[in-house]
Amino acid sequence: MSTIVETSYFNSFLLKKAGINPTSSRPPWGDIIAQWPGLPWDPTGYPTFPALPNLNTTVKDHSWYVEESRIRGGYNNNQTELGPRAYLSTENNSGQTSNNGIIFSGVFNSATGFNATNVFSIAENITKELDPRYGSIRKFYATDTDLRIFQDLKVSRTLVDKDAIFTADGNTQLTASTLVLGQNLPFAGEYGIGNFPESFAKKGFRSYFVDNNKGVVCRLSMDGITEVSQYGMKDYFRDQFEVINNDFQKYGIQVSNLVSPLNNVFEFEVISLAVRSLEIGMNFTFEGNVYTILDLGPVSDNAGSNNNKRQVIIDRAITLSGKTPFFISKWDNNKVVGAYDMYQDVYTLSIQTPNSVVNGGGIDMKRASETLSFDESALGWTSFYTYTPILMDSLNNSFISTFENQVWDHYDQTVPHNSFYGSSPSKSSITFLFNQSPSLKKNFLTVNYEGSAGWQVDKFESGATGQVENYYDNSFLETSDTSAVVKSLQNGYYVDSITGQPKHAGFHLKENLYTANLINSSPVAPYEVSFGAQKSGIKGFFATVIISTDESTNIGGVKELWSVGSTFVRSS
Question: Nearest 5°: phi and psi at 198?
Answer without folding.
Answer: -70, -15
